[in-house]
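Quick illustration, no need to memorize.
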Amino acid sequence: MKILIMGCGRTGAQLATMLDADGHKVTILDTNDLSFRRLPPDFKGTALVGDGTSDDTLIKAGIKEADAFVAVTQGDNRNVMAAQMARHIFRVPKVLLRIYDPLRRELYTKLGFETFSPTLIFAQLLMDNLVNRG
């Protein structure tokens, strides 16, 4: 698969590393070139400095050929905007995004986006551990 990831923080870098090791063609975008230090030396994908909410940057990153787009920056607004662009402008078949705010996650899920909220996921893990495991 050709996968474009926006955000090379801990999650984006880890995902890019895992996908690359699995043989996928990965391009990862970030606005800060220092973020790419999180990638391992043997990373075979492409690391590109740029704003994932810019048409020009997305085209340069290969979004027109992408099978999937993943938005995992620290900003919910940026992730939502880029995901909408990937889906509605560039017609990327699979679009995933991280949304920290549980209420916003619910809204974007209802709009048909595949969303993940680390806030909800972690809270559920903690609750399961506290309540179900004694």
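The chain has a mean pLDDT of 94.
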